Amino acid sequence: MQIPHDTRNALETVVSLVNTIPEAHGSDGLPDVEALYGFAQAHRMSGVGDLGPRDLRAVQAVRTRFAEVFAAPGPREASELLNDLVAAAGTTPQLTDHDGYDWHVHYFAPDASMADHLAADCGMALAFIVVAGEQERLRRCEAPDCGHAFVDLSRNRSRRYCDSRTCGNRLHVAAYRARRKEAAG
Fold first, then answer.
1. What is the pTM (predicted TM-score) of this model?
2. How far apart are CA 122 and CA 2, in angstroms?
3. Domain Zinc finger CGNR: where (predicted)?
4. For 90-168, where are the alpha helices, taking DSSP H only?
5. What 8-state DSSP symbol labels residue 151?
6. C-beta neighbour count of 40 within 10 angstroms
7. What is the pLDDT of residues 128-148, one digit of tens each?
8. What's the gap between Cα 45 and its chain centre?
9. Residue 147: left (phi > 0), alpha (psi -120 to 50), or beta?
10. Strands, DSSP E only, in the chain?
11. Which domains, from first to last, does the chain contain?
């Protein structure tokens, strides 16, 4: 599956946003406005102006809706959620070539709030996944103590863990030790 850089960036951003939900790791990854600024900077979001508590609440609400998309049982449910998100953001597609990137599409208005920016760009990235018939690529980590969201972009759709070096390796080592203990047993 070939994905343009702007869509890939939006997918990475939406995964990071969903993974800030408290249930994903015990504490809220976006507890305050300072964390919201940090999130915007980490994901190199353009056009983010002054942010306040209202922006934080709006982004947290968008984040909850994105989590619902990852949990949607099928494309019809996912599309309804995405249509609502994108429509509420007042999507206005524009071609742009900024910050050294070649031409790509921004789906948010130039003066959009951070929540609308995320809803429009990330919502459209997820919509492309659904339209391509690839919704099963929107997954949760299978590690029992994790549950982070991720987008499986592997060729054969076989990825099971958010990070094979941490969650996957930890489970494989535990299974190996259990087999060794049983064999010695």
1. 0.85
2. 17
3. 137-180
4. 114-131
5. E
6. 20
7. 999 999 999 999 998 888 889
8. 14
9. left
10. 94-96, 104-106, 138-140, 149-151
11. 5-184 (1.10.3300.10)
